[in-house]
Amino acid sequence: MSFKFNFDKKLFVLWSCVLFILLLECTIKWIGDLFGRINMDEVSLMLQVGMGGVDAEIFWSFIRKVILRSALWSVILTVVCGLLRKYKIVPILVYVGLVVVLGMRIVDANIQFGSFFNTTVSDFYEREYVFPEKTKITFKNKRNVLMIALESMEKPYADENLFGAGGLTPHITQMERDNVSFEDYRVLSGLSHTIAAITGMVTGLPLFFSSYKSIEKMLGASGIGNVFVKNGYQTWSFFPASGKFSLKENFLRRMGFENIFDGVRLRAMLDYELDVIPFEGIDDGTLFEMTRPMIADIIKSGQPYFIFMETINTHCKGYYTQYCRDLGFKQENMEDIAKCEDKIIADFVEWFRSQDPTAVVILVNDHMQHSGDIMKKLSPLGSRALNNVFINADDVFRGVDTSRPVAAFDFFPTVIEAAGGIVPGCRLGLGTAMSARCAGVKTLREKYGDMSLQELMEQKNDLYYKLSVGGESNDE
C-alpha cells in the first residue's frame, strides 16, 4: 500500500489566513475577558518582559482559549471549504464572516491605545517634570512609614446601595472617615494598570510604551526609595507576586528599595503548601501573616524605615483562598474576596500600629477594577474614585482640601511630606504634594484638566524617552 500526499497550495493559503484572523480574534477576546479592557501600553510591556511570574493558569488559559481554539476552527473551516470547493462563494463567505466577527470584537474590546499611536511631539515633560535627584529634600523629623498599594480597591465598594449594609469595605471606609482621604483620586492614562500605577507612586511618572529595544523601564529615573535612603532610612518592599512579573523587583531596586521579598522568595520560606499561588507567589492573608515577625524586627532596629507593600487577592477575577474561608468568608464571588481583603488589611494595620504607634500608615489603591462578576454593578458608574488614606499624619494635612483632583504620581511627593520631609516647590516628578504646606500649588489635574493632561502625557517627548530607557530618542 502506498500513500500519496497532494499539497493543495490554495487550501494552505486559506488555512493560513483563517488561522491568522482567528488567532487575532481569540487573543482580543481572551485579553478582554481576563483584564476587562485592552491597554496597548500594558500589552507591549508584557511582550517585552515575557511571561515570567505569570500564573500557570493564565498560561494554560491562553493555550486553550487562543491557540487550540484557533487551530481547531481553522482546520474545520478549511475542511469545509475543501469539501465545498466547487462552490466558490464558500471561501468568500468564510473570509467575510471572520472579518465581521473580528471587527465586532475590536469595537467591543474597549482598546486603550495610550501613547501607542501618538506621533505628536511636545515639550510637556521638560516644562512639568521635576528631577528628584536635583531637588534638595530635607527632613525636619524622620517618621517611619508603612505604605500599602491596594489592588483594585475602589471607593464605590463602600456603596451600600450596590452592595448592601456596610458595603464591601467597612473597615477601610472607616479608616478613611477617621483620617485623611482624598475624595477625587482617579485613574489617568499611563497609570491604569498595576505596574503603571506603582511607577506613578514611586517615580512620579506614567508608564507608556517607549522602545522594544529596552526591556527595562525607567532606567533614567529616580524614585522614592532613593530619596529615603539618601536621608538615612532603611527601605523594604514586600509583595505577593513574583518579582519577575513586569520585572518589578529590578525596577524597585533601581528606585532605592534595598531589601525586597517577592512572593516567590516568601513562599520558599513556608513549610506548607498553599491552595493558590498568585503569579507564582502567595495570597494576601499569607503575606500579612508571615511578614509580621519580619516587620517587628525592622521596628525594633531603631533605624528609620520606609516599608512598601502590595496586595493581590482582588486582581482581575480575584483569588479565592482557604485563608479567607477560614475567616468566615464564603469565597464564592469577587464581593466575598473584597470583604475578606478589607478585613485582613484592617487587622494588619491594627497590628502594625500596636507595634509602632507613631508611624505613618498609607493605603493607596492602584487602579479601578476591570473584570469579574463585580463589574455588572461597577461598570454603570463609569470613572470611579479610588481608596486612599493617610493615618497618623493629621498635622501634615491639617486644613487641606480633600476634594482636590489627584493622580497616582501626586503620592510620590505627598508620601515624603507625610514622613516629615520638606519638598522645595512642593513638586517631584509630575506629582504635587498634597500637604497643608503645599495647598497653594496646583496638581496637574487641576492645572490642565484630565483630558488635556492625558493627551499631553501621551505625546512623544525626548525627556520622557530618556527617563524611560536611559538613552536619547535618536537611539531608537
Structure described in brief:
With 476 residues, the chain is an alpha/beta fold. The chain has 20 helices and 14 strands.
Task: Give an overview of the whole structure.
By secondary structure, this protein is α/β, with parallel strands linked by helices. It has two domains: 104 residues, no CATH class; 350 residues, Alkaline Phosphatase, subunit A (3-Layer(aba) Sandwich). It is built from 20 helices and 14 strands. Strands 7-6-8-4-9-10 form a six-stranded mixed beta sheet, with helices on both faces. The protein has a two-stranded parallel sheet with strand order 1-2. Helix 1 packs antiparallel against helix 3. The longest helix is centred in the N-terminal third of the chain and has 28 residues. It is globular. The N and C termini lie far apart (59 Å). The N terminus is likely disordered.
